[in-house]
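A further point concerns the way the authors explain their paired sequence and structure data. The central task, working out the structure tokens from the amino acid sequence alone, is never made concrete. I therefore recommend that a typical entry be quoted early in the introduction. An entry of this sort, consisting of the sequence and the corresponding backbone structure tokens, reads as follows:
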Amino acid sequence: MSEDIQVEIEKIKARNIRVETDKAWETSRFRVFAVALLTYLMMVLLMWVIGVEKPCLSALVPTAGFTLSTLSLRFAKKFWIAIFYKRQG
């Protein structure tokens, strides 16, 4: 029985490491930068394909909007947890 418990403890520790790593990634500035860069590149490509004048400059607007919305979601998440999630418990 002791070995079974030890195996379960090791599984829980491994899961906790995965969860902590995922959380670190989700809140990292590198992730925000990577998403913003990919968004910008895709918007430049799209705008170039549809014939927008100055696609490199025009792509900054949707990229900035998207990036700001992802950053503001942290505030929204904290608000939601404080107001709504606590009621569930």
